[in-house]
Design brief:
Blueprint: H1 11-39, E1 50-54, E2 64-67, E3 72-76, E4 81-86, E5 97-99, E6 102-104, E7 111-112, E8 118-120, E9 129-135, E10 139-148, E11 154-155
Antiparallel strand pairs: 1-10, 2-3, 3-4, 4-9, 4-11, 5-6, 6-7, 7-8, 9-10
The chain binds FE2/S2 (inorganic) cluster.
Length: about 160
């Protein structure tokens, strides 16, 4: 009796082909996962939008204090009222310097008065005044992500 030759693929061939496709699938999944992982950074860039300062560190009445790292000046109008003004130039974002007449940008020469209103140079608008909040623990929180009209003071006492 003669053996009949089977039509199609043998079991061994099917297992080999299946294994090859399985390995290719695993490689594709691994590569895709690695690419997907690098699409989302695990670090944040830039400075945080909010920062805290102890109420005890506020400037004296009529004085102001520059927080260089946060590019903010805090001004104390009275015992109870303070304001925070951004030191980020509204032209192209350089940090302005506090000068006797107000603020001056070292990059392209924009000048602002003591309330941050533009008095010269290419700056298109007033320096933003920022939100100030009293938070528990004897601290105030300054939000550099807000932009309020000039002369916006907040109660801190
Ligand atoms: S960035 Fe300040 S004047 Fe250009």
């Amino acid at each position: 009796m003669a053996k009949e030759k089977k039509e199609g693929k043998s079991r061994r061939e099917l297992i080999t082909i299946g294994s090859a496709f399985g390995l290719m699938g695993l490689a594709a999944a691994g590569t895709g996962g690695a690419i997907f992982k690098y699409m989302f950074p695990v670090v944040s860039y830039g400075t945080p939008q909010k920062f805290l300062i102890p109420v005890d560190d506020l400037p004296d009445v009529g004085d102001e204090l520059v927080f260089d790292d946060m590019k903010v000046v805090v001004r104390r109008h009275s015992e109870e009222k303070v304001a925070a003004i951004s030191l980020v130039c509204t032209h192209l974002g350089c940090t302005v310097n506090v000068v006797e007449t107000g603020f001056q940008c070292p990059c392209h020469g924009s000048q602002y008065d003591s309330d941050g209103l533009v008095v010269g140079g290419p700056a298109p608008k007033t320096l933003p005044w920022l939100e100030v909040k009293v938070v528990p623990g004897g601290q105030i929180e300054i939000d550099t992500g807000t932009s309020l009209p000039e002369n916006t003071f907040f109660e801190v006492a």
